[in-house]
Amino acid sequence: WQAERISEVVSGFGELWSTQILTALLRMRSNQKLVEKFGSDSISNIVKALTTTSHIHHNYVFLDARRVITIDEDAIKDGAVVWHISEEKFMEIFKEEEAKLGDARDSILCHFIITGYVAINTDGVAVTLKRDGSDYSAAIMGKILRANSISIWTDVDGVLSADPRRVPLANVLPEVSYDEAMELAYFGAKVIHPKTMQPALSCDPQIPIYIRNTFNMRSPGTRIFTNATTTKQNEKVVCGFSSVEGMALVNVEGTGMVGIRGVDKRIFGVLEYHDVNVALISQAISEHSVTFATSEDQAELAKSIIEEEFRRELKLGHVSSVDIRAPVSIIAAVGDGM
User: Which of 18, 268, 282, 293 has the CA that lies 20 to 30 A from 217?
Assistant: First the structure.
């Protein structure tokens, strides 16, 4: 436990340092413009000038997200944001910064430069937001601020219709729905993690997310929102294709399964108990067989625990076999209009 906590504290320093450096740079450039405009480096003279002119000054404030984003680690795996506490903390900080502006508050726009990835738990201990934590931080702050939009800057032009390594003619999708983006993300697209969309999706009104390219700012990117083209245009019912490799199919088959209640519950209950993740389920209408997909490295475990669970049925011949087919890939056609 202590080693994990120390690791989380240390891994957050990169975000803290880089954010402070960026804040200092932006603040220096903004102040230089003030000096050039008013010909003085005296704070009192500049504040006086701001109150008597229409000039808008941009003030940049460093904000450690650990002062705001509060996580309840006991809620779910990787923690859940305690929204009311996080919002109250931010409002207190906002009021403090606003009070510092004094009479010049109407002439100064305050910009918070906030760390990503780091947070604090309900016990006051520093934590991180784990995988894709920086993007998740942006979405969390977007909800707290009731932002008009959230932009995620990455190294691609947006959400693609397919993996360009396999489909050279894959194109950037101008817009996709939240549901489509989640499906694409689950089935292999690495542009955005599903948890990043949750804060924007749970807002009222919902906040659109834009996926933009840091290295190609001319590209408009992809807009992720409630409705997408596939729900409006019949000829565009599919927005894209995605895939997951390194999977295995496990098939449980037997005539004794037909019409017997509780078989599926036993299969997936024992898999859940042993932390075997199931990505896809297919069942014959006759209930003669159940097939599910799991990762290839969990397939043998899944087979052995199902055989143990149904050892009596296997002995009596009610369940004839538990077979594995691997390796396989899951290919998903994604589109709300389907």
Answer: 18
Structure confidence at residue 45 as a pLDDT band (50, 70, 90): low
Between CA 68 and CA 138 the distance in angstroms is 13
Q: Assign 3-class secondary structure to the chain.
A: CHHHHHHHHHHCHHHHHHHHHHHHHHHHHHHHHHHHHHCCCCHHHHHHHHHHCCCCEEEEEEECHHHCCEEECCCCCCCEECHHHHHHHHHHHHHHHHHHHHHHHHHEEEEEEECCCEEEECCCCEEECCCCHHHHHHHHHHHHCCCCCEEEEECCCCCECCCCCCCCCCCECCEEEHHHHHHHHHCCCCCCCHHHHHHHHCCCCCCCEEEEECCCCCCCCEEEECCCHHHCCHHHCCCEEEEEEEEEEEEEECHHHCCCCCHHHHHHHHHHHCCCCCCEEEECCCCCEEEEEEEHHHHHHHHHHHHHHCHHHHHHCCCCEEEEEEEEEEEEEECCCC
Q: Which residues of 263-272 are buried (b: 16+ CB within 10 A; e: fewer)?
A: bbeebbebbe
Tell me how far apart the terminal alpha carbons of the chain are, to the nearest angstrom: 47
The residue among 235, 131, 237, 243 whose CA lies nearest residue 176 is 237
Is residue 151 pLDDT above 80, yes or no? yes
Quick check: 233 pLDDT over 70? no
The C-alpha atoms of residue 39 and residue 36 are separated, in whole angstroms, by: 5
CA torsion angle 72 75 76 80 (round to 10): -40
Q: What is the C-alpha to C-alpha distance for residues 69 and 200, in angstroms, rounded to an integer?
A: 15
Tell me how far the alpha carbon of residue 16 is from its chain's centroid: 21
Range with the poorest average pLDDT among 3-17, 60-74, 110-124: 3-17
**Encoded amino acid at 15, one letter:** E
Hey, what amino acid is at 268?
F
CA distances from 308 to 32, 43, 62, 314 (A): 73, 77, 57, 9
